[in-house]
Structures are given as C-alpha cells and as structure tokens.
Amino acid sequence: MTDLNALKYTAEHEWVAVDGDVATVGITDYAADKLGDVVFVDLPGIDSGVTAGQVCGEIESTKSVGELYAPLTGDVVAVNEAAVDDPSLVNSDPFGDGWLVKLRVSAADVEGLLDRAAYVALTEADA
Q1: Is residue 84 part of a domain?
Q2: What CATH number should be reported for the domain holding residue 100?
C-alpha cells in the first residue's frame, strides 16, 4: 500500500511520488472516482519535455474527457504502458499500478506542491 502522506499533490488532482530526481505521476482516487470508468489514456512520449501546469495528456472515461496536467517541469523518462493497454488500472489502483508517467525533475520544484492534508482539505471543499 502506498503511503498517501508521503506523496505530493496538485489542485488538478495529480499525485507525485519523488525518488531522487524522478517523479512518478498519476491521478488521485478522487479524480478517478469523479471521472468514472476510464476507457482511454493518452500520455506524452518518452524523452519529450513537459511544463508544469500545461496539458501533457488526456484521460477519457465513460462520462467525460479529462486533461492530464504536468505537475512539474521535466523530461518524460517512462510511461505506464500497462495503463495505456488497460486504462481500468487508473480506477482500480490509482496510487499503484495505475501510475501514468515518470519525469526527471528538479527536486526543488516539488516543494511547491500540496501535502496530503492540504489536498484533502481541497477535495472536501469540492464535495
């Protein structure tokens, strides 16, 4: 089980797990629940650059199409092909097997993201 308190979050409902200079990114269970059954995931290519706050992918569900925003500026070093092949992983295990991309980032950039308490307060305000 992923320690949700060890993750960082964005107001756009992405989570970030940092290991050295690599950040693993996914969408939160809150976002996955709001989207409904995810049926398609479009992710940036490996070695492409992404810019914090900019759209870098798309997540389609039976209810709607959502945009994936880059939580940090960096270079894509991996994409989760399993989630591309089986988008339901985003719903069934958003903090584990449903991760989306890995970015090489500057660790200092992570400090501007939300901690778990701030993210929970944000989502409770939306409820």
Answers
A1: yes
A2: 2.40.50.100
